[in-house]
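Exercise 3.2. Students should predict the tertiary structure of the chain below and write it as structure tokens, then compare their answer with the key that follows.

Predict this chain's 3D structure.
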Amino acid sequence: FRSQEDADEENSTVLWSNSFDTPVAVTGNSAPYWPDGVGPEGFMNAWVPEKPALDQFMLKLDNTTKVDGEYSLYCKSTAPQGTKQRVKLSYTMPEKMDYTQEYILRAKVKAVNAGNSNWGGATLRVDLDGGSISQEKRFSGTFDWETVELKLNKDNLVEASGGKTSGKLELCVMYEYFTG
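Answer key:
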């Protein structure tokens, strides 16, 4: 997660980074979906409005298929296409962010048959204090590791926050009607 004062990845200021290098025991409502019992530090918050069947959906830290760092976050669903299942993993930034600034969220993503029914699939999303959605990027299909970029526009941040100039950001990975 970088400031956009300089859009060049090499020169922009890194405000937060997580390569999932610190596995921790999983707690909370996402725990049943982590069969190994460990997950990435900070991503224990989960919203599960349409619970996937435990035998059809799993999350894990993968130490073999990764770009950098020790692990990648791996999600697998064997549910038939169109099955109602929605899971959002999130990390709330500990510091308040200045909503009058521009930011870029970059993530390395790899997908294999990440299909969707009508509008689902995987989503990289940023929510604000109070749960309002700022911006999101959806993806599906099959592709090797690529950088998915979400530019956070300051006007959108201020508008989505109800006119606030600062607050906490929640970084989300969401799986909706997800197969693959």
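Discussion points: Residues 1-7 have pLDDT under 50 and may be disordered. The helical segments are 154-160.
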